[in-house]
Specification:
The chain has about 260 residues and is of the alpha/beta class. It is built from ten helices and eight strands.
């Protein structure tokens, strides 16, 4: 999400750097990359294809459908079954794939399209071989329960971080069910200048005491929430990428666990 230009709109400031970040990700052993056709739009997927195609066999590209962008970069819903299908085909074309390993159905909070109709379309796309697994994004507990009754859920991608645990019920359900949970905005919203995660005194104090970065504390905290957590901290910086990767080695001691929310 951070590879396109500001506001996830337009080309990157430094195309060569964006490609270098993607290649370093794979070289470092990361095998899960989150993307979307509407990141740019059309930018993130094109960068991924240029940097990594032909893809390593174990690389899982996870995209999402349910939104589009207008000429001004506004985020618009695209929730109808025909729009979801068009979104999957656009991802296939831009990524150069015959099948997208996982596609998340991003539910718009004000959507008037019945959720069951959306899931039926996603199941059909899986049965046709166009997607490998059906994921969910931006869903509440009721949506999650309904989806689990109608399909196999590959993963759930919801907002969740040290400053925003309003989706704790969905996270707890995924952990209990063994469903991968992918917290978006793990370091706080990319669109919020006043970052409540990285600016938290508890986070900064813990980082200082453990001699790590605030971002590493926030990521380590998420990893300690359960074995089903998959992190997707976006970055366009090689330095931040290395710091994010190193968060897997950060151990939060009892004092840190007690201090953090």
């Amino acid at each position: 999400m951070q590879l396109p230009g500001p506001g996830v709109f337009g080309p990157p400031k430094d195309r060569d750097l964006a490609l270098a970040v993607l290649r370093r990700v794979v070289d470092a052993g990361v095998n899960h990359i989150d993307t979307a056709q509407f990141y740019g739009p059309d930018v993130a997927n094109e960068l991924i294809r240029e940097a990594l195609h032909p893809y390593p066999e174990d690389l899982v590209l996870v995209s999402k459908v349910g939104a589009v962008r207008d000429d001004q970069g506004q985020w618009l819903g695209a929730q109808r079954p025909d729009e979801l299908r068009a979104g999957v085909h656009a991802n296939l074309a831009s990524l150069g794939l015959d099948q997208v390993p996982v596609v998340n159905l991003r539910r718009h909070p004000e959507s008037d399209v019945p959720f069951a109709e959306q899931l039926a379309l996603m199941n059909a796309l899986r049965d046709e071989g166009l997607i490998g697994g059906v994921g969910l994004s931006n869903v509440d507990l009721e949506h999650y329960r309904v989806a689990r009754s109608l399909t196999e859920v590959a993963c759930v991608q919801n907002a969740f971080n040290l400053a925003d645990t309003t989706g704790q019920d969905v996270f707890d359900a995924c952990r209990a069910d063994g469903v991968p949970f992918v917290p978006f905005f793990p370091l706080g919203s990319a669109f919020n200048a006043a970052n409540p995660v990285l600016g938290s005194p508890a986070v900064t104090d813990t980082a200082r005491r453990l001699a790590v970065t605030a971002a590493q504390v926030a990521l380590a905290w998420l990893l300690q929430q359960g074995p089903n957590v998959l992190l997707i901290p976006g970055t366009s910086s090689l330095q931040h990428l290395e710091e994010n990767l190193a968060a897997a080695d950060v151990i939060l001691d009892d004092d840190a666990i007690e201090a953090l929310p």
